[in-house]
Write a structure and sequence with these properties.
ATP binding; globular; 334 residues; three-stranded antiparallel sheet; seven-stranded mixed barrel; inositol-1,3,4,5,6-pentakisphosphate 2-kinase activity; 10 strands; ATP-binding; Phosphorylase Kinase, domain 1; alpha+beta; kinase; 2 domains; Ins_P5_2-kin
Length: 334
Amino acid sequence: MEATTELRVFYTTSNNIPKLSASPPTTSPPALPCTLHYHAEGGANILFRLTSTTTLPSRLQNRLLRLRKNLPHTLPASDQLEAFTTTFLPLFPPTNIIHHDLIELDPTLPPLLNETLARIPRPQNRRDTFLPLHERHGVLVTDMSPRGDEVLIQLKPKWLAQSPDAPPGSRRCRTCALRAQRAARGVRTATDAQAVCPLALVSESVEARRRAVAGVTGDERARAYLVGEAQVLLRSLRRWQVEFDARGVLNTFDGEGVRELCKAMTLRDCTLFVRCERDGGVEARVGDLDLKAPGRMAKWRGVEEGLGREGWYWGGEVEGGGDEERVCLLALER
């Protein structure tokens, strides 16, 4: 990686709390010089990799530094961690979840990182987003990057159960209905491109699951895992999606109901990381579990109302002239 994409930092601990600084603090023992490398980014966060010419402390090994973007819907890192620890961490086995640990940031670090972000190659649709200057914490997350010839699959399971707001007799699930609506409008996301029905991923039919995972990956080990062993994890994810949203977006108005719905919507937008390892083993972890904000309720209601009003659940669209449904399990089983 070119030098301009890197930033030299210093790692210390204070009262057992890890900290990154832009200049070497006067501490004992001495701070560890490290280098931050831009790794990747999504809509809400930017990931950096930490390296050192010496062995990294155990706290930094197999970890990426995740920093939130300066956007209205992103919570401070300390709030994110609290929501993750109290809400999502208890839902899954420790071996099946991306772990989070708080790390302190020196006040001089965010401005320097923003300078680095301004001059490095980034996705075109992300180049105008930067880090908040007032943020004093980041999160160390489990690094699921493939090593050597390992294979990493990133899957968005989406809505593993039908939306409570879907009309009876629907021919599409919530995810497939939204995909069809977007296709009619000339919009196609990375998840849409996989053309996978979430209901098929957790179907009782092994053949339906095989067809679904064929759209996710060509790796035979990953396919076998998703069809078989991963079902325990995927069905647990489905269970919590349903439990946190019993009434649907269009019928949830009270404060407690909205808070529960935000949990469900977070789980409907999480990522399943599946890493096929050199020894033949498979490691799978659920990540991207930043609690959704109640401020998104208006958007969620608008999407649900549009899907119903325009007929996308039925497969007989009022407008847009969508193609015959060939992906959704609900249509294929009729």
